[in-house]
Amino acid sequence: MALEVGAAEALGRLLTGIREGEDPSTIRTAFDELDELLRRGGIPGGLSPYQGRSSGGYPRLPISGNAVEEVFACPAGTCPRAEAVLDIGARPPRCGVYGERMHRVRLDR
Description:
The protein is an alpha+beta fold. It has two domains: 1-48; 52-109, no CATH class. Helices cover 27% and strands 10% of the residues. It has helices at residues 8-19, 24-40; strands at residues 70-73, 82-84, 103-106. A hairpin with an 8-residue loop joins strand 1 and strand 2 (82-84). Helix 1 packs antiparallel against helix 2 (24-40). The chain is globular and about 40 Å long.
């Protein structure tokens, strides 16, 4: 998608900054630049997800009825992304930033 709207270089700068542990303000600037380029390229919302947010600002987990006890989380522990483990045998998704499988993490009750 970034390539299609001319934002591939901005995406590269953002990913490099995250992977190399750049200062958060540098990463935020790269994030904002990519977001702006995506919006100007016709991507509604840019990098902003359309899903509901918790009071802490993080995406809500897709919970339906039963409590989630495990999630797949960022392999580097640098972002708040989490996906519910809805199947015991589920394979962890691959992180788009680091290219590694996400880690299975047990939540405290």
